[in-house]
Design brief:
The chain is an alpha+beta fold and about 160 residues long. The chain contains three helices and four strands; from the N terminus they run H-E-E-E-E-H-H. A four-stranded antiparallel β-sheet has the order 1-2-3-4, with no helix packed on it.
């Protein structure tokens, strides 16, 4: 069984015809039993290009009964009733559930970051603010006195 499991990883099913119960199998790695190539397997006729089925080995001992067509069709034989319309449901007679407002997921506004912050993310409080356009400390670009002149001078 272990050898069959190991050898099965060396094959890839390339084409499969469900109605004819035949498929084309390609060996991707040499197993020692077969030569590298593709083989056509005909399940109904129990034949294969490789000659494996002709050696009278029963494939059903390697396949669980759950995968047989009879089991698959038996699943769909069981009937079921569709649900009735919601207006015809009986009144609910259970506990009333009230949600915790703090657990509500807010969708308005900017999304909250889910990133876990550490000491690298903390701002240095001793460092003074510096304006990017004029590179002067003590203010930011919003309150820069050269803001209007820098934009006019660059264009």
């Amino acid at each position: 069984m272990e050898r069959n499991l190991r050898d099965s990883k060396c094959f890839t099913v390339t084409l499969f015809d469900r109605h004819q119960s035949e498929y084309t199998n390609a060996e991707t790695m040499p197993t020692g039993t077969f030569s590298l190539g593709t083989y056509r397997v005909f399940l109904q006729d129990r034949t294969c290009n490789c000659g494996y089925f002709q050696s009278r080995l029963d494939w059903s001992i390697y396949v669980d009964e759950v995968y047989t067509m009879q089991k698959v069709f038996r699943v769909y034989q069981i009937g079921f009733m569709p649900p009735i319309l919601e207006g015809l449901w009986p009144p609910y007679d259970g506990p009333t559930v009230i949600l915790d407002p703090s657990s509500r997921h807010y969708r308005d506004g900017r999304l909250r970051s889910t990133r876990i912050r550490n000491n690298m993310d903390e701002a240095d409080l001793n460092r003074s603010k510096r304006c990017e356009p004029c590179r002067q400390p003590g203010h930011t670009c919003r309150s820069c006195s050269q803001r209007g002149s820098t934009a006019a001078g660059s264009s």
